[in-house]
Amino acid sequence: MSEPLLTMDLLAGYAVLQPLRRSGSAVSLEADTVKQNASTVSEHVESSWALFGAKGEIINKLREFGIECSEPDWDGYEAEPVSERALDRAEIFIRSLPEGVPLPEISVEPDGDISIDWLPTPTKTFSVSIGGTDRLAYAWLDGTDRGHAVARSNNGDVPPRILQEIQRITSHEPAFRVA
Amino acid sequence: MSLPSGLPEEVSDDEPLARFLTSSGHFNSSKIKQAAFLPNPKDGRTSVFRHGQEPKASLEAIGNRQIAGRRVYGAGIVKAGDVRAVELDVESIEPPPRHADIINWPWMKDDREFGKAQRKEMAILLAQKSLLVQFSQ
């Protein structure tokens, strides 16, 4: 069962910070430091909320697909149903994506695996499949460069090799790989 | 040699093939995703129909008839030559009329995930070459 994305503690802490961000009557170096730190923390929390909100939408979509694709032949082509284990692992993977990584799109594959895709341009794609095991099949297209591989996930998190590929595909750098 | 549909048995490279889209997750507003082209795990084939984007009404009618009971969102149209360019092949299989399969997907009995990764790369290439045709709601 997924955890709540926001806790009352976080909300309470955020609320406490707000008065500290606004200009007050204090005129000391310490007061300025407190105000600046409160602003920095608040901005980070707000950024995290935006991130969690967007991630929350993706996770909701994941769960919707889990229901739509829960029966055999859900696609009319004899697809296998998606497993709860694959859904749970996919959710962990999405939650583990670090801040700054563009959020992916979700789909279900005919063998019941969850596909997590980045399609930043018509000539760039990165796709990783998440099933019931910790071995993740992935493939990419980056201009004329293309390939496929398998990486092992540690309890569902994003393997460093995969994170590196996602960041490369979604960057604005030209497609070039040193042999 | 002609099939019951009147089409030749051999699928030529310039023939368009339609892969009907039955999941909203298999495409976005502008692109088809690789999952749409991955093969059926039971027989290792991807079912397609020998039809291009036009006439659209005919294409939509085939999709609704062949995938009865499910919403058909549209189709991904890809040339048989593009399928063969990624080392797959196309085999005509009738009935139903105009039906064909994309075949020769790689499978690795000893390493399920690596075989899956190979298929994903091929499906990404097919998706990139394909044209998205969306049907009316």
Jot down its keywords:
heterodimer; A: 179 residues; alpha+beta; 20% strand; elongated; disordered N terminus; disordered C terminus; B: 137 residues; three-stranded antiparallel beta sheet; 6 strands; 26% helix
How is the secondary structure organized here?
The complex is a heterodimer of chains A (179) and B (137).
Chain A: H1 8-21, H2 29-68, H3 84-96, E1 105-108, E2 114-121, E3 124-130, E4 135-142, E5 145-152, H4 160-170
Chain B: E1 16-21, E2 46-49, H1 56-66, E3 74-79, H2 80-85, E4 89-92, E5 99-103, H3 112-129, E6 131-134
Task: Give the overall pLDDT of chain B as a whole number.
Answer: 96
Query: How much beta of chain A, percentage-wise?
Result: 15-25%
| Termini separation of chain B | 38 Å
Please count the beta strands of chain A (DSSP E, at least 2 residues each): 5
Tell me the count of domains of chain B. 1
**In this structure, how is the largest beta sheet of chain B organized?**
3 strands, antiparallel
Strand order of the largest sheet of chain A: 1-2-3-4-5
Give a quick rundown of the structure:
With 179 residues, chain A is of the alpha+beta class. Chain A has helices at residues 8-21, 29-68, 84-96, 160-170; strands at residues 105-108, 114-121, 124-130, 135-142, 145-152.
Question: How does this model look, in words?
Answer:
Chain A contains four helices and five strands; from the N terminus they run αααβββββα. Residues 1-6 and 175-179 of chain A have low confidence and may be disordered. Helices cover 44% and strands 20% of the residues of chain A. Chain A has one domain (8-170). In chain A, β3 (124-130) and β4 form a beta hairpin. Chain A has a five-stranded antiparallel beta sheet. Chain B has one domain (16-134). Chain B is 26% helix and 21% strand. In chain B, β4 and β5 (99-103) form a beta hairpin.
